[in-house]
Amino acid sequence: MNNQNPVGNDSNLLEHEADGIRELDNLLPRWWVWLFYLTIIFSVAYLGYYHVLKAGDSQAVEYQKEFDAGEKIKKVALEIFEDSIAKLEPSKDNSILAIGHQVFLTSCAPCHRADGGGLVGSNLTDDYWVHGSKFEDSLKVIWNGVPEKGMVTWKGMLTPGQIHAVASHIFTLRGTRPPNPKPPENIQVAPSGPSIYE
């Protein structure tokens, strides 16, 4: 078999051979070699700066700083909402009520039914409110939960806007007549006039 270099230069052929084929030792382009050298230089500088000298923050430290900053912002927002609960009114905005309806179906319906008639959780359509009948009471129950009765605290899972929206939606369920509702609980609250939806 002829193993001569077709270009006529045997100096680029390596000594080893497989199945009559000899490997041609082509040099890499110079730009590629210099780029490779630059990546090595960069990695050594990076290692020295961040891990040996510790002059800069590592990715884990940067993440922790960003996380802590976000937690501070979240804490302030939650405190502002919690302080304003007593002043909030149910929303009449259809887009907010739609958000509240969707949150209710996702998070509340498994215990209170999609129509609010009650399963494990209370019936939200009758006049027998276990934790208070005011809108503020509903917000506080959603916000803080009722752990002793199995209701989770939603303030860590829902945004303040979602909590206000779902409480507003629940307010619209009052006085509706779902089929086969859960029997009344607690005592009937004293009438305080028509709701804003009547």
Your description of this structure?
By secondary structure, the protein is mostly helical. The protein has three domains: 10-52, no CATH class; 57-87; 89-173, Cytochrome Bc1 Complex, Chain D, domain 2, CATH 1.10.760. The protein has five helices and two strands. A hairpin with a 2-residue loop joins β1 (13-18) and β2 (21-24). α3 crosses α5 (160-173) and α4 (135-144) packs across α5 (160-173). It is elongated and about 105 Å long. The chain starts with 12 loop residues before the first strand and ends in a 25-residue tail after the last helix. The model is unreliable at 1-8 (pLDDT under 50).
**What's the CATH C level of the largest domain?**
Mainly Alpha
Going by CATH, the homologous superfamily of the largest domain would be: Cytochrome c-like domain
What is the number of helical segments per DSSP (H or I, 4+ residues)? Answer: 5
| Low-confidence segments | 1-8
Compute the number of strand runs: 2
Strand order of the largest sheet: 1-2
* Average pLDDT for all residues: 85
